[in-house]
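Hi everyone, sorry if this is the wrong subforum. Our group has a chain we'd like a structural model of before ordering constructs, and none of us has done structure prediction before. Sequence below.
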Amino acid sequence: MSVGANKGLLFTPYLAPQDGGLLLPWNLSEADLQLWATRYIVHDVWSAAALARNEAFEGVVLADEELVPRDVLEQSLYYREYLTQVGIGRLCACGIFSPALGVQATVLSVYRPIEGTPFNSADQEWLRLLVPHLARALGVMHRLQTAELQAATLLSALDRLTFGVVLLNAQREVTHMNPAARIAVGRGDGLLLNGGGGGSKRSPLPHNPWDCATG
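Answer:
Right subforum, don't worry. Here is the predicted structure as tokens:
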């Protein structure tokens, strides 16, 4: 990495992945990440210090001793039991998203070994230049996730309807059938699906108009 880091992590520091948080590592093992997420997230003194400062996360770049003095860090359980185990001793963290934006606080942290030199102002400035690019990329990801959630919510609502609903695309191919529509198709009661490439077609209107509605 251009700032001389040996590890990195793009993550949500206050929300573990098992609770829906983001965790994208570089040069950190799955075992290291699981240990942090399940045991040491509550002892992360760097994240706690950033929260206590009430920083507007977005665009803020802080090196380790700006967050926690070295002597305090080395006395912490987080350092003694976790950081020394994974070979991390120095930190430079960039705020990508603030919680005030309606998303989880998101941070890019880069690390150096315990014996490494502190990150300097040039390192911080270089990382600060990355923040807008990361924010745009993650913004697209969040919008896609929101769209996927909205689509899943819509399909779930359709599946609860007592009458049949079939969704078609522009080529009249079936993209979704709710359970009631599947029952109607299974009866062969005026509604047929062709078997060629997933396309769909309707025979004359169903005998019971409530058997199927198309959308």
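For your construct planning: Residues 196-215 have pLDDT under 50 and may be disordered. The first strand starts at residue 7 and ends at 11.
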